[in-house]
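Hi Y.,

Following your request, here is the sequence exactly as I used it, all 278 residues.
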Amino acid sequence: MGKGTGCFPSKGSKTVGTGSTPGEDHETGSTPGEAHETGSTPTKAQGNNNVNVDDNETNTSALTESESPEVPVGEKIKVFIVFYSMYGHVLSLAKMMKQGVDSVQGCEGCLFQVPETLSDEVLTKMGAPAKDNSIPTIKAADLPAADACLFGFPTRYGAMAAQMKAFFDSTGSLWQGQSLAGKPAGLFVSTGTQGGGQETTALTAITQLVHHGMVFVPIGYTFGAGMFMLDEPRGGSPYGTGTFAGDGTKMPTKTELAMAEHQGKLTARVAKLLVQRN
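Below is the corresponding structure, written out as tokens. Let me know if you'd prefer a different format.
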């Protein structure tokens, strides 16, 4: 595990440090075209970008706090937010996911970064900032301690970055024993352009979850009006939260960050229901 505080699946401290936010993610490569959603658009789609997450909760009434029993003290449901972020875009979304998870009674979001596969020399030449050492680095053997997982990564030509793929490739023993089967899991991404893989990156990543027997939890259109806004470029899709990195200087928008927080809440509530019913 990496240095610093964190929500460790092993014995010891269960506290997660959020740490500082490095610079921005600049995603290389793009995928020609992007799936175009058809169908009617609610009239409330036209509006400003200050999305109120609470307003969007009306579409997730089946997962509200009042309909879910309280979790016994000392038995918090752990949602592991496992990510790779080279320039900071995905990290920003991951921190908002944690806020969403933590806002659900009895649940705790645990931030983890996957191991880097590039050398320090290469990262320096690419202008990547230093990793946040307050966020621990996860190992495959740590995953079974999670009650649910959210996996975040930038795209590389319409699929997940090699660093995240290398991490999934290291989970062979977990696959063999189906140690993750039945655990809910969600995805979130960052792309360089609007046609760079907001949907294809999630679609190609779902195969990893399927082979592990995990239960994919998309956000669908539960985010409400924020899913239909057309007055600014907005990442994200029914598959999960997303952001556009552009040339690396574009920060995630308020809408994208609000969507990330919403996805954290949604995943935590699904995990809470599954854990309590089992």
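Confidence is low (pLDDT under 50) at residues 1-5, 9-62, 65-69.

Thanks again,
Q.
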